[in-house]
Amino acid sequence: MPTVRAAGLLDVETGEIVRPGVLHVEGDRIVGAPLDDEVIDLGDLVLLPGLMDMEVNLLMGGRGEHAVRSPVQDDPPLRMLRAVGNARRTLRAGFTTVRNLGLFVKTGGYLLDVALMKAIDDGYIDGPRIVPAGHAITPTGGHLDPTMFAAFAPGVLPLTLEEGIANGVDEVRKAVRYQIKHGAQLIKVCASGGVMSHTGTPGAQHYSDEELRAIVDEAHRRGLKVAAHTHGAEAVAHAVEAGIDCIEHGFLIDDEAIELMVKHETFLVPTTYLADAMDISHAAPELKAKAAEMFPKARESVLRAYRAGVKIALGTDAPAIPHGRNAGELVALVGRGLSPLSVLRAATVNSAELIGVTDRGRLAAGLLADVIGVPGDPLQDMTVTQDVRFVMKGGKTYVKR
Known about the structure:
Helix content is 32%, strand content 20%. The protein is α/β, with parallel strands linked by helices. The protein has a six-stranded mixed beta sheet with strand order 3-2-7-16-17-18, with no helix packed on it. Strands 11-12-13-14-15 form a five-stranded parallel beta sheet.
């Protein structure tokens, strides 16, 4: 069994770099006593827990990131093949756990992210551990209705309730039940508009309070959490009051919404790097105008939430930024004014808490051997997380350079 040896090791609880960094691995776990007949010597690298991204969609984007086919040509088998490369790039970038946060594509009702999770878990392909949400639950014409993104005419690419298009209490309950039946491990809901919404203001609430409560009730009774794409302060407040567990983006939150999030211990996944790196050069003029309004507020709101005590977990919304460049979010959060240690905790222990697991997020005996190595101290220079030179997931080495 291997011993991993490096110059240092980050203890995310104490915020200290332990030197030297030594981990003993048996099977897929870190163990306390050496059982080694092999030493993996990583020289000057610093070991970190495997990073986690709480907002990705591995079924979208791909090499080059720009779609080469229209949504009506991009069928589920092709998406799955692209997802193989996206999953591999994400893992090799040091992200060993992700939430695939809501399909919004036509699949015929298949939960492609659940299938991708199974393929990775069974060892068919390389990729991170996936917590799948199945199809995002969205109203007709909502921000996560894919026919809205493409501004399709009526009748083009019809979508079903099983694919997440649900209106009214009865339909949203059925949509949630369908995702759970076929393997979703959390529920994603569209609670407001967004930058790329063709209709309405970006912060406008999309589901009624009654519909939001019904979605939360269905998920919570089955032991699943609910994440909500939400931008507007009022929409955030209503989502939090409805019992939503996690707000995605939250670009337009105000002090009142922040206070509610603290009170209810609602997580925020701020995806703030979007404001710097999202390519909107080909977007329609009205969408560029929305971005010009929202992105400056996004850069400011995350710091206010952090200072107020909102729980922050890390997420990128890849492929809104390219798959494999997920660590740009850590660098961006430090640039916004968050402390490096708090950012690393957002990507490790906080994310583990958000997905309800205790077997990862730290480098300690008994936990999963999800370990990465970077060329320096991220507490001093977060950009080292963009140059991952060692990746181990579950005791298996995927990158060593």
